[in-house]
Amino acid sequence: MPAFPKAAHDAVNNPTLRGNLRHATHTIRDKRAAAVAELDDWAQLREAGKQIKDHTLRHLDRYLVQLEESVTAAGGTVHWAADADEANRIVADLVKATGETEVVKVKSMATQEIGLNEALEAEGIAAYETDLAELIVQLGKDRPSHILVPAIHRNRGEIRDIFAREMSEWGRAAPVGLTDNPADLADAARLHLRDKFLRAKVGVSGANFMVAETGTLVVVESEGNGRMCLTLPETLISVVGIEKVVPTWRDLEVFLQTLPRSSTAERMNPYTSMWTGTSEDDGPSDFHLVLLDNGRTDTLADEVGRQALRCIRCSACLNVCPVYERAGGHAYGSVYPGPIGAILSPQLRGTQSEVDASLPYASSLCGACYDVCPVAIDIPEVLVHLRERIAQGGPVTREGNKAVLKPAKGHAAERAAMRAARWAFGRPGALRAGQRLASRTRKLHPRTLPGPGKAWSATRDLPPVPAEPFRDWWQRTDGGKKSDGDKKTDGVRKTDGVTKDGK
Amino acid sequence: MSSRDRILGRVRRALADVPPDDTSYEQAVDRSYLRVHGDLDVEQTVDLLAENLADYRAIVRRCTEDELARTIAAMLAARGAATVLAPPGLDPAWLSATDVVQVPDRADSTPHDLDRIDSVVTACAVAIAETGTIVLDAGPGQGRRRVTLVPDHHICVVRVPDQVVSSLPEALERLDPTRPSTWISGPSATSDIELDRVEGVHGPRTLEVVLVSDPPGVAA
């Protein structure tokens, strides 16, 4: 993946994409504001959600052990996966043990993060996405561009074309003469996927919450594809990030109020499924929970960045972000786009790659993301913290080991300039000589900077150099008490607040 | 070292800044948010449930206990249903007025069998007025989770006012976490295509909720 500015470049110049994104983000942000306004205690719910998550993260070891005990007692099996490869291997082995070669999937960020579909494919197992938007993405051989509505960048015409072209490759073909009416498109997806649901023996999901006290897992959805995958197969495998645990059953009262309103702007999403281990004659007889680290413990080790693990994946921050609205989700080069992606991805993956080092800069720091976040993640604070880390280097934790990060390469020129400035400010004589030289040659200065500074000066005026250095003027006029004489101050001097008569 | 030990070890090292006497769970969370939004009496709460259910495109009917069988029969007839699934523990009186073929909910029936059934009638565990949600917990008359999912038409009977609560916190209090639960707020819906809401992608496309009350003058 290229760095964000490069990746965003094409998106920003694509009017269809920008139109689709603008329509979607504005629609949903207005609806969200109305849904949130219905609750008089939103601020208190937000604070409670933050406190529950913070407390859980501060005692994560204890709650994970408790969760493991509860799930096991309820008839489930718990697996631990330190990274993506291990999680993929566990899931592939579990699927192979059933003798099946296909699985149905509930939309899940965790399984996207680890590239599960591709890993299963390499093992000869077909993984079918069953969320309508994920189906559009999968059939279109595309990548998701939004956490909640992954096909937000596609309009109805594009979706019709994808269905008509691709559905027959994967199973039941799209009806002849399929229109671009959303209801017809949804119906085509219903028929196509129902074939798969009814014969599926293995389901794979994530979870929105896991309750340590009871071992209950919660999946929040709209379409019913989640319920299909969670209840029809004989084997259910849930891959869940370790940060998704909450201590008690009661804690759900906070998140089930804040999550739907923040994400889809609804009082409640159409379907929520909760299950605790296995139930006799109801749902899967075999339940496996794969607890995923994959960079989460490294994130936890950073006292400022840790708060990103509070995220409940509502995607409200994407919909209010002026950068996301224009660049779209693909430019972030990660399954977590938008403001939350800009702080989560570089922490989960480290900042070694070009794209991860650029993500903390993919923001205007306007703070709208913090305002809407239902668990009050101070995204701008973490962005600035990560920028500092990238520019200056510093201690980090990678795969559980402490390391010291070197300053990023791209910042070498800036650091060289700072070193030169430090040298000059420490030598008044050299500074004065340099300032005088700059003043006398000011007519010769170029309007734009050469080399790497070119992009900077392409969109800004270079600050003009005054005709006389300030210190010379001060000395000559005794701080403005004496007449200026022949030397006229220029416009720049005046805008600095020092006028001809020195008042 | 197992991955379990490795991950727990990393977590503990990552939390070196957390003091051993850190704030307890009980004190860490400020629960000053509201238990219930608004100040509605019982009748108004039921009205709010009906309003919010309808707002999410569920079809809401109200009747008394002695009208229930006839109401359900009329709904099945209007739908043109040939078969109706009756979960174990469903009050037989509810289906006493319909001549639609009744199919029992059996553990060994396949998803394909369920797909051939036209309608399902169930009870519920609790209903939440503020959000327009009905909750099923596989208790008597509610059946396995899949029976309210695969058939395209779901009729759910809610006893009012005793099965109705105002808010989500009140509902959680009434539920047993060890039972699987399904929370339903309106029929299946998607907004994945240009954020246009379309009902019924995978779950039942029609959800009808019957709010049944005791006839006037009869004590509950």
Summarize the structure.
Chain A has 503 residues and is an alpha/beta fold. Helix content of chain A is 49%, strand content 12%.
Commentary on this structure:
The complex is a heterodimer of chains A (503) and B (220). Chain A has 503 residues and is of the alpha/beta class. Chain A is built from 24 helices and twelve strands. Chain A has helices spanning 4-12, 15-37, 42-58, 60-73, 84-98, 109-113, 116-122, 132-139, 156-170, 182-199, 225-231, 252-263, 296-300, 316-320, 322-327, 338-349, 354-358, 368-372, 379-392, 412-425, 428-440, 454-458, 470-477, 491-495, and strands at residues 77-81, 102-105, 126-129, 202-205, 209-211, 216-221, 235-241, 245-246, 271-276, 286-292, 394-398, 401-405. In chain A, strands 1-10-7-4-2-3 form a six-stranded parallel β-sheet, with helices on both faces. In chain A, a hairpin with a 4-residue loop joins strand 5 and strand 6. In chain A, helix 2 (15-37) crosses helix 12 (252-263), helix 9 (156-170) runs parallel beside helix 10 (182-199) and helix 16 (338-349) crosses helix 19. The longest helix of chain A is centred in the first third of the chain and has 23 residues, at 15-37. Chain A is elongated and about 100 Å long. The termini of chain A are far apart. Residues 491-503 of chain A have low confidence and may be disordered. Chain B is α/β, with parallel strands linked by helices and 220 residues long. In chain B, the strands form three sheets. A six-stranded parallel β-sheet of chain B has the order 1-12-7-4-2-3, sandwiched between helices. Chain B has a four-stranded mixed β-sheet with strand order 8-5-6-9. The longest helix of chain B has 14 residues, at 42-55. Chain B is globular and about 70 Å long. The chains are: A alpha/beta (503), B alpha/beta (220). Chains A and B meet through helix 2, helix 3, helix 4, helix 8 and helix 10 of A and helix 1, helix 5, helix 6, strand 9 and strand 10 of B. Strand 9 of chain A pairs antiparallel with strand 9 of chain B, so a sheet runs across the interface.
